[in-house]
Specification:
Layout: H1 12-17, E1 37-38, H2 41-47, E2 56-60, E3 63-69, E4 75-81, H3 86-101, E5 110-116, E6 119-125, H4 132-136, H5 148-167, E7 172-174, E8 183-185, E9 191-193, E10 200-202, E11 209-210, H6 222-227, E12 229-230, H7 232-248, E13 253-255, E14 261-263, H8 264-273, H9 291-304, H10 315-323, H11 327-333, E15 362-364, E16 370-372
Parallel strand pairs: 1-5
Antiparallel strand pairs: 2-3, 3-4, 4-6, 5-6, 7-10, 8-9, 11-12, 13-14, 15-16
Amino acid sequence: MLNRFSMLRSMDFFSLLCCRKLSDGKEPGARKSSTWRVFSLKELHSATNNFNYDNKLGEGGFGSVYWGQLWDGSQIAVKRLKVWSNKAEMQFAVEVEVLGRVRHKNLLSLRGYCAEGQERLIVYDYMPNLSLQSHLHGHHSAEYLLDWDRRMSIAIGSAEGIAYLHHHATPHVIHRDIKASNVLLDSDFQARVADFGFAKLIPEGVTHVTTRVKGTLGYLAPEYAMFGKASESCDVYSFGILLLELASGRKPIEKLSPTVKRSITEWALPLVQGKRFKEIADPNLNGNFVEAELERMVLVALVCSHGTPDKRPTMHEVVDLLKGKAYEKLASLENDDIFKPDLIRNNREFAAIDGSSNGICVQGDAKGDMKQEAVVNLTG
């Protein structure tokens, strides 16, 4: 369905997008249709002070993001693709297509786009508190702005945004790159899931698509990393890793030695098996958290990141579990086999992560994220 984007040679497609009917607001958390438009390159040059370095918010493999201010005083974020190519054109088209279809309070809103010459730019609402990544591991981490209430709100909000993509968007959307740097935070620290350049639209009745692997090492579901089988369940796995990251303040992969790495699930599972939940909590919380909520978040995280896709919950179920609504299911989580030490051998229910083996070709981008660019070589 999306392979038509690789054949784009003009911007007629984007003109058609402007006429597309957006969400009617009937779904939970959905926003009513809002206006977005085509920006001129001159207008965006003016808004960003000619893409001045001082306005740069971040940089990745796709290019750079700049802060800007429009003539009416409203603040924007502008993603500027690094170089023009068929690959960049497709990523640009996919993101505009997806954002043009969906509206939800926990998804980053599209303000418009610009396509002049070889320039490809996407304009979003500006998020003053930047990304979850910046608060957990980046330059905001020393400010300790993420208290427990904010973390729970971020967990539930981002889950609701992803649940909207999976269950209410038409066609359904697989994000394929759920991670801390793609969860942005508005002025009230409400979560907005962002960056839909790797997204896939899934027609009704289709359970998965087989595709080239895209995403970030540490967040990839094993069946996706090994076989390229992308489904909603892959996003659930990535979200489980994100929840553990949010609860613990740790990164998805920890380097124990030059040759040995440990995933966050491998670290957390023995602690849960020993009922040592408090040891999982981010030290920056200084013990200020609700124990029952922490336990709930961690249990949900580990079930989401189960090595077997069929044993993972749906995102609808994840939302209810995080909110404490699914009482019976929540009560049964602790009795799941994965939390019984005598049934676990070397954490086999979870995939070990080693980017230097198994034929996986990994490429680092400017932010240090590890982008999977090839499927595992199954013949080696």
